[in-house]
């Protein structure tokens, strides 16, 4: 039976963090609306987007927060992180500095969320730009292992691993909640 039903079994908040222009907004628009933009419009960011997914017979609605460009000034406030059960921690595989800054984002995230339960997926985005790669996949993997994170390389442009990145976070949060 087909029926419109807004009810869900779980609703939770997750956040996107990482340096400016790593692809946060495009990963979210790819996941929530299957859209990608070549131009970057950092100041016209939405606050958040929703997507419902079915996990183990339950409907989980994820409210995923995106920045409106505050990360450029390292001015993300505690309210952005408050109550977040999960995070995608994103760098750009073609810009080494964005990978080096991951540790700063990680300590900020752990400071403002519940560090014992927050589910964190490390994401190396722009995997389509193979010729410009500055961070090897093994480096991302090894950082993730030492920090106890999940890890994936993605391409918002080619729609590679985007579903997997969000769904691995959502699935893990579901396990933490149940
Ligand atoms: P944000 O500042 O982290 O939200 O980054 P944006 O989503 O605005 O993306 C910054 C720029 O990178 C834009 O020009 C995007 O088109 C581009 N971009 C984002 N994701 C990818 C990707 O997977 N591959 C490529 N080649 N470009 C991307
Ligand atoms: Mg953005």
Short synopsis of the structure:
By secondary structure, the protein is α/β, with parallel strands linked by helices. It contains six helices and six strands. The site of guanosine-5'-diphosphate (GDP) has 19 residues, from helix 1.
Oligomer: single chain
Report the principal-axis shape: globular
- Major β-sheet, in short? 6 strands, mixed
Helix-strand sequence: EHEEHEHHEHEH
Terminal CA distance reads: 28 Å
Q: What are the bound molecules?
A: guanosine-5'-diphosphate, magnesium ion
Protein name: Ras-related protein RABA6b-like isoform X1
Family: Belongs to the small GTPase superfamily. Rab family.
Question: Could you explain the architecture of this structure?
Answer:
It contains six helices and six strands, in the order E-H-E-E-H-E-H-H-E-H-E-H. The two termini are 28 Å apart. The chain has 178 residues and is an alpha/beta fold. The mean pLDDT is 90. Strand 2 (48-55) and strand 3 form a beta hairpin. It has a six-stranded mixed beta sheet with strand order 2-3-1-4-5-6, sandwiched between helices. Bound molecules: guanosine-5'-diphosphate (GDP) and magnesium ion (MG). This is Ras-related protein RABA6b-like isoform X1.
Descriptive tags:
178 residues; 6 strands; binds guanosine-5'-diphosphate; alpha/beta; binds magnesium ion; Ras-related protein RABA6b-like isoform X1; globular; single chain
């Amino acid at each position: 039976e087909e029926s419109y039903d807004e009810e869900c079994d779980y609703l939770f908040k997750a956040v996107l963090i990482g340096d400016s222009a790593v692809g946060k907004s495009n990963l979210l628009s790819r996941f929530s609306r299957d859209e990608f933009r070549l131009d970057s419009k950092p100041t016209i960011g939405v606050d958040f987007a929703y997507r419902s997914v079915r996990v183990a017979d339950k409907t989980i609605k994820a409210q995923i927060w995106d920045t409106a460009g505050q990360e450029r000034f390292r001015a993300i406030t505690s309210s952005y992180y408050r109550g977040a059960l999960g995070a995608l921690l994103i760098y750009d595989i073609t810009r080494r500095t964005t990978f080096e800054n991951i540790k700063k984002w990680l300590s900020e995230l752990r400071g403002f969320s519940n560090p014992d339960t927050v589910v964190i997926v490390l994401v190396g985005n722009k995997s389509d730009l193979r010729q410009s790669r500055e961070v090897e996949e093994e480096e991302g993997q090894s950082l993730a292992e030492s920090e106890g994170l999940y890890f994936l390389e993605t391409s918002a442009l080619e729609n590679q691993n985007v579903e997997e990145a969000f769904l691995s976070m959502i699935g893990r949060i579901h396990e933490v909640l149940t």
